[in-house]
Every structure is written in C-alpha cells, then in structure tokens.
Amino acid sequence: MRQYSADLTPPWKKPQPVPEVAAEPGLVVEEPGTGFCGAVIRCEAGTVTLEDRFGKHRVFPLEPRGFLLEGRVVTLVRPAAGPRRPARTASGSVAVPGARARVARAGRIYVEGRHDAELVEKVWGDDLRIEGVVVEYLEGVDDLPSIVESFAPGPDARLGVLVDHLVPGSKEWRIAESVTSEHALVVGHPYIDVWEAVKPASVGIEAWPRVPRGQDWKTGVCAALGWRVANTGEAWQRILGSVRSYKDLEPQLLGRVEELIDHVTA
C-alpha cells in the first residue's frame, strides 16, 4: 500500500532554508521586526547584542530566520569556540594587538581642513600610528605652495596632500599641478566638502542635498536636512559619529587616502 505524507503543504509555500551566519563582533545586521540595524558587539547563549551608529544597544534572541544580512534573511548562530579570525581596523587592515606607535616619520600628510583630519584619523588612525605618519591640516589650499616650499620634500621626507573638490581646470587644480613632484603627491576627491564623502545611507539620509551656487554649502545642507543651520560643527559631529569604518565612505575618498599613505611610507 502506498504511504502518503501527512504534510499537504505545497512545496512553494514551505519555508525555504536560509544560511546560518556566525554572529562575529562587527557583523552588521538588521532585526526586521523593529528595523533596528547595528553591529554585533556581544553574543551569548540565546541572545545577541547589537549597537547602532548612534551607540544605542539592543538585545535580541537568536531565533531562526531572525535577521537580515545585506537584505537577505539569515539565521544568526553563536560563533564556534576556537581561534578567532584576525580583528580589523576601521580601514579594513588586519589589526596588530599591542602594537606601539612608531616614531613619527619625517614625511607628512596634509589635508584641507579639520573635518578632513578628523575623518582620516577615525578611519585610518590605527594604521597611521603603526606607520608613524602624522596628519596635519591646511587653513586653505592657497597656502599650499608656501607649505611645500618650507617642507622641502625629498626621498626621506615625502609629502602627501589631500584636496577637496579637485577638478580639472579649477584654481585648486592649478595650485596642485604647480607643487606636484616626485616626492610631493597632491590628490583630491570630487566632493565639494569631505562631508559629502560619507555615504548618505550611513548618515540616515537618502542623498546629500544640492546647494545653489553662491550659497555656503554646509549651511545649505543643514537647512535642506532640517538641521540647525547656526551650528555646522554640531552637524559634523553627527556625520562623523555615523562613520564606523571604511564601508561608510565613498570609494573616491578611500582610494585617494590609501594612495597618500602608500606614497609617504614608500
């Protein structure tokens, strides 16, 4: 006699298997029921703790099909005991536990403003300390020729410079061309300000607003987003606080900073 299954659920209605992913520290997932998105900071028996970009913590149960990873449903599981994969710095480099900062090189990296310097420090700070590279900032690109002349770059003291909104034919472009040499490398990104090099999604916005020519860009951005116009410093702290790693930055900035570090440490 033929045996029939008691389960009459059509195959297309049955839950499909989903991958199991180890809840390693730093893994960014979303809990779909609440929409809470954050990085794993702790995984214990039956629960996982996530931290969002504002530093808020939430504890969730490790339930099957309970999380989204890059938009796909997954089941988080407790990491297996044993040797852990190497930790990474915010720039994506393999971390060196206990490494001491190297004595500063003669070479330097200059960036165009304080916000640029703070962003570079947050993402590449660990790498720069190990390499002994100091980052300083310009008050303006107009000062670059005198800084390069005073610095006198050479084989043992290479100079790297990051310039905002470096586009062919601009004043900044002509200044950069005038000081570039074998030991002085000037590169730039296409953004009006380094704020724009942070991915909009990381900040929690759909896109960076378009600001009419002639209007202060930062003020215009704050006004368009409903942020306090009178305090662009507060707005910057909000943006900087949303940056957790290199994944929150646009590739056009990542490549230029890595290029400068390679140049100065060559």
UniProtKB/TrEMBL annotation:
It comes from the Bacteria. Pfam families: DUF3097_C, DUF3097_N. Residues 20-79, 108-265 form the DUF3097 domain. InterPro entries: DUF3097_C, DUF3097_N. Coiled coil: none annotated. This is DUF3097 domain-containing protein. It comes from Streptomyces atrovirens.
